[in-house]
Amino acid sequence: MILVVGGTGRLGNQVVRALRDQGKEVRALVRKGSEYFWLNDTGTNYFFGDLRDPQSMHRALRDCETVISSASVRVEKTDNNHKTIADGHAALWEAAKARGVKKAIFVSCSAAPNGGDIAAFSSKRAIEEAVQASGIPWTVFRPGLFAGNFADLLRRTEYNGSVFLPGKTDAMVSPVHARDVADIVAAAVDSDEGLNEAIDLAGPEAMTVEAAWKIACEEAGLPGNFWSMPPGTLKLAAMAVRPLIRRWANHFEAISVHFGQAQATDGVAAAARFGVELTPYRDAVKAAWLARHPGEDPVAREEKVVHRQFVATIYEPGTIKFDDLPEGPPPRQD
Ligand SMILES: NC(=O)c1ccc[n+]([C@@H]2O[C@H](COP(=O)([O-])OP(=O)(O)OC[C@H]3O[C@@H](n4cnc5c(N)ncnc54)[C@H](OP(=O)(O)O)[C@@H]3O)[C@@H](O)[C@H]2O)c1
Predict the structure, then answer these.
(1) Pocket flag, ligand 1, residue 70 (CB < 6 Å)
(2) How far is the centre of ligand 1, averaged over its atoms, from the C-alpha of 14 (Å)?
(3) For the whole model, what pTM was predicted?
(4) How many CA atoms lie within 13 A of 270 on its CB side?
(5) Which atom from ligand 1 is nearest to the alpha carbon of 30?
(6) Pairwise CA distance, residues 260 & 241, whole Å
């Protein structure tokens, strides 16, 4: 059994799908109140828990040989932020050690090692250090910018007519397809490749942020209007708003690094180590543009809301206490 923490996320749901495509037994950790029904078609098990509840981590890990986490926060909340995520992972690795888990995989990001004191990146560094010190065989993956981020910007331009491109528009980036990252993560589960290593992941081509945006617009048939701000001005703006809205300042600092820092370009070699051939950026951004998140699809919401899985059927998120949950989900009946 493989526990996926963050399985409801953009990357995490692809990890669940990649593992299920290989026929692996998967347990996705689902937070109370989180949307997860659109994972039903994967046949994954669910377990309600939260990184901030160490006991739920211990329970979720019953009979697991592997734990994979891609959990993180984008915009912090008072009670779920970069610090609680880092503390939660420390508890996760501790619980995994106690449960005898044989491999821990953490999806970090390319900016983590050199991200200075930017909260999003120092949190990831702390999580990386904790897994390395856990005594569990580990692999850390550090992907750069996802091609899907440009598809997100396309959705914004659809409504607003133009977008704000954070960071430096002439910075070289190698956007990577999230599904390729997920395939690499899934391939690492049963392989000694990358054991006890932190591995940078990137797409197959390097280009400027502006060129990546133009390609995305061509694929979607939308005008490529954008506006940007010099990084110095953006930093000043983040400093100015910090005393009032720290979480937005933290978010802007992080995304301006994602979009503005030169990133690893040797994605092909790293992916080949795991037998994965990378998707060209043009195809990746087109796929991300066409594949609306299932949670955004009203028909899917209507049709998939009837849950097959035991835990999902019995418990409505938000209505029970963690202490009332059973010791891990029962085996699937089908
Ligand atoms: N997007 C990029 O361009 C990019 C680039 C490089 C690296 N990365 C990294 O890749 C990883 C995955 O990114 P993503 O885009 O898939 O992120 P995402 O869509 O924001 O997903 C985050 C996941 O973490 C879960 N989560 C949040 N707080 C939690 C908590 N307290 N306990 C348990 N789970 C919690 C979320 O659950 P809910 O569904 O309940 O909110 C969600 O499943 C992140 O570490 C990210 O930094 C992203």
Answers:
(1) yes
(2) 12
(3) 0.88
(4) 24
(5) 40
(6) 20
- With a cut of 60, say whether residue 256 has pLDDT above it: yes
Q: Is 47 helix (H, G, I), strand (E, B) or coil?
A: strand
* CA separation for the pair 225, 217 (Å, rounded): 9
Q: For the beta carbon of residue 98, count every other beta carbon within 10 angstroms.
A: 11
User: Closest ligand 1 atom to the C-alpha of 80?
Assistant: 31
* CA–CA separation, 319 and 304 (whole Å): 20
- CATH class entry, domain 2-318: alpha beta
Task: Return the domain boundaries, the chain.
Answer: 2-318
The CB of 13 under 6 Å from ligand 1? The reply is no
Contact 40, 104 (CB under 8 A): no
**pLDDT surpassing 60 at residue 333:** no
| pLDDT digit string, tens, across residues 89-117 | 999 999 999 999 999 999 999 989 988 88
User: How many Å lie between the centroid of ligand 1 and the Cα of residue 189?
Assistant: 19
Neighbours of 153 (CB within 10 A): 24
Q: 185 alpha carbon to ligand 1 midpoint, in Å?
A: 15
- Nearest partner of 18 among 182, 146, 203, judged by Cα: 182
Range list of H helices, 4-64: 10-21, 54-60
pLDDT in tens, 192-232: 999 999 999 999 999 999 999 999 999 999 988 888 877 77
Residue type at 223 in one-letter notation: P
DSSP per residue over 267-283, as a string? HHHHHHTTT-PPPPHHH
For 50, the 3-state DSSP assignment is: coil
Higher local confidence (pLDDT), 38 or 180? 180
178 lines ligand 1 (CB under 6 A): no
Half-sphere exposure (CA, 13 Å, Cβ side) for 222? 24
Q: Identify the residue whose C-alpha is closest to ligand 1 atom 7.
A: 109
Asked whether 12 lines ligand 1 (CB < 6 A), one says yes
User: 6: Cβ below 6 Å to ligand 1?
Assistant: yes
